[in-house]
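Supplementary Methods, section 5.1.

A reviewer requested that the exact input to the structure prediction be made available. We therefore reproduce it here, unchanged from the version used in the analyses.
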Amino acid sequence: MAAIDLALAQKRELPLKISKELCAGRTYIVTGANVGLGLEAARHLVGVGAGKIIMAVRNIEAGEAAKESIEASTGIKDVAEVWHLDLSRYESVRAFAFKAIETLDRIEAVIENAAVASLDGKAEGHHIVLTVNVISTFLLAILLLPKLRTDSAKFGYSPRLSIVSSGTGLDLGEYWAKISEDPIVNMDADDALGMNSYPASKLMEILAVREIAKQLPVATGGVIIHTINPGLCETSLSRNAPQSFKDHLKDMWAQCGRTAECGSRTLLAGGVAGKDSHGSYMDDCVPSDNLIPSWIDDTAGAQAWNSIVKELEKIEPGCVSKALK
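The structure derived from this sequence is encoded token-by-token as follows.
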């Protein structure tokens, strides 16, 4: 079923799978936490008694305003912390990861929600959508994985690493065939990337997570990693899109769009999902690999991951083997 058909058929009410019993006293990292899905996920986690919420944001002022909003709505202070993270700069990703490793006793879940949808622009020598949604997203994951694995062994639980993706990438089989040999290089070279940029970056996330999970089973690594499709939600993600596309989205939102609060429930479900979600594509808060088209196979996963690894090793030599060995 095409992604647009899935969006039109999506549920507008979803279960809230977190609770005080599951989350009390625990530590969570949520990126892109000052607006939309990330903000609402952080608000829910504070509300159910989490011990510490790291709100990773590019704009500290906006992050502090979001934190004040959470404290006002929950009546709970001194739980949410605002940390700087700019995914368009690798040095910022490094600094954030090293701070988390050095200062957080343990991490229950990392919810990588931050993303951009832009038709043009460059960052760190790549199309900005590739830099933010793919390379920096996996750089953060790989840098934090050794810490998550150590926490798992030390404390006897399975940290979650959730990559917020999208079903929009599932319709790109024909495009994937053109770029699959080295997708990052080929997408950067595609002058007509345009509207394919965001869904292609989300496809890369799905493929890479499937490959990482294959290389690092839960029994070996102790960490549960998956991708999450939050569905079509009323957020500011499309703010840089052409007006015609914004108008189209507005019409779709009216038909089937989820609120940011409802969409955030998919992120929270990932943060407490079981071992059956490892490597999976989660939709409507549950593992839904039945929605993955047949052309998304082990070969595609290896191609996507190998392309990403080449970039990660340029940025932080040895980081991938350290995380996955």
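The chain has one domain: 16-324. These observations are discussed further in the main text.
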